[in-house]
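Hi U.,

Before I forget, here's the chain from the pilot set. I'm dumping it here mostly so it's searchable later in email.
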Amino acid sequence: MAVGIFDSGLGGLTVLDAAQKRLPDVDFLYFADSAHAPYGVRDAENIYALTRHAVYNLWDRGCDLVILACNTASAAALRRMQEEGVPAGKRVLGVFVPLIEALTERQWGDNSPPREVAVKHVALFATPATVSSRAFQRELAFRAIGVDVEAQACGGVVDAIEDGDMILAEALVRSHVDALKRKMPEPQAAILGCTHYPLMAETFQAALGPDVQVYSQGALVAESLGDYLQRHPNMQGEGKGGFLTTGKPDFVSDRATQFLRRQISFEAA
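Structure:
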């Protein structure tokens, strides 16, 4: 039995790692569309087509539940896939929900009118595609009022991480934080709106300062997934766990092993 986890590349490994620690008895099948990464510079139609293809691949492999561990895919493709309908017995979920639940301190199923929350000034760091979609702001507005969100498109960060150039990634993060602070000098909270970014969480925190609460998605998504599987135990599927990539398996395996500091072996999708 396996739950599918999809990402455009290796960023979703931060979600996978947290999910495996939270749910050690659950198998996961991770799919990295490395041949087409990064998604953040693609247009919405292309992101939707690539995401849909990957999700159906995971469904065909027996994963009844697929988590889009990619903010760009969640922003550009999730709602459309759900509106178009999914096969009977299948589900696809994104990563925005647990984050917004934590920020607003209210459950997703709470359909009461939007209300004020403690955090008023939020910095959102995300890919260009996620920023342009305004999906985070739209979902937040359904649940909270009076929150000022300043988004910063972090071009180049995902590419540097995927290439293993962490020195360049750190320099880019500091540059993007500086750019955001020129627009919002004193954010109260910061959202790392790409699953690659937790790999740079210490750099973000250092650049933002100790008084800014930084939200990473891995642990939040893992906790939410645990609750979901407890309520829907039949959604663990029938497939086998493992690692798949559309890229070069040896190269992707080496990068993944560096990220998680344990041996990871990808196979061709």
